[in-house]
Specification:
- By secondary structure, the chain is an alpha+beta fold.
- The chain has one domain.
- 68% of the residues lie in helices and 19% in strands.
- The strands form 2 sheets. It has a two-stranded antiparallel sheet with strand order 1-2.
- Helix 1 (8-31) packs parallel to helix 4 and helix 3 crosses helix 4 (88-102).
Length: 103
């Protein structure tokens, strides 16, 4: 079944991708900063953490990107729930892709 040219697996993939973005935003808010690991050739890795103030956190949460992520997640959640219930094999195929990335 297709919705606006997207098949069920593609819809689940997009939904999971949006959830990852929302999780990143939530982590920034929870940690009150941004963490990154940079590789320096021939030296190794360096960890960097930048603390963010309340104003910057508010700006991030008011950003168009974050708002679109939330909006799309809400719109797709019911469709993805239906896919998971009616076509679990298609849902699980995409879910496995994202679980494998976490490992």
């Amino acid at each position: 079944m297709e919705h606006f040219g997207l098949n069920n697996e593609e819809i689940v993939f997009l939904y999971k991708t949006i959830l990852q973005e929302i999780d990143r935003y939530n982590l920034i808010v929870e940690k009150r900063g941004i963490y990154n690991e940079l590789e320096i050739p021939e030296m190794g890795f360096i960890s960097v953490f930048k603390t963010l103030n309340d104003e910057t956190i508010d700006e991030i949460l008011e950003s168009p990107h974050f708002k679109f992520c939330i909006q799309i997640e809400k719109q797709l959640s019911n469709v993805v729930d239906m896919i998971e219930e009616s076509l679990p094999e298609e849902y699980e195929k995409i879910d496995k892709i994202f679980k494998d990335l976490e490992e």
